[in-house]
Amino acid sequence: MTFEIGDKVIYPNHGLGIVERIEEKTILGTTCGFYHLRIVANDTTVLVPLANVDGVGLRRAINDDEVERLFGLLGDGKIDNHQNWKGRFKDNSDKMRSGSIYEVADVLKSLTFLSKSKSLSFREKRMLDRARFLVVSEISEVMRESAAAIEGRVDRALERCLTVKASRAAAAPARAKVVKAAPRATANNSRRTARAS
Question: DSSP secondary structure string, 104-126?
């Protein structure tokens, strides 16, 4: 994937950056091209080798259609729920490094859900804050709306997600009773049929 000067790109775990320059540098006798990115959140400059763009997960910001898909994902009620802290932290760390906004949204949902039932560890709290920042800042940039307005929409989507998950969890035991009752009813019908004949 190639970018031009002025392109808005997402640098995994850092957020939105703008390509300010593309130049060649010679380091230890090897000449290669670099993108100079200015990270919007903290106004720092990052150099990304052109040859390593895919390796670091540099990508374009999502478009308007993808924003709606992202809000749908945030509110769908599907939440990964690992019980094991180690496994959960590893999976979430991998998702954060992937560069995919949809993976980051998954982390945001699962850690938000978890934080409602127990205190998060310091590292998970930081990860939750980071996931929230990355989702809000990218949508804010794409929609050209303030971060505060986008935070409100993200919060509403997350509330919807938790409500949908809770209603599915409440409906699950009722469905299980129906499934268990059905075979018993069939057995009773078979006995009645046998008696009748």
Answer: HHHHHHHHHHHHHHSPPPHHHHH
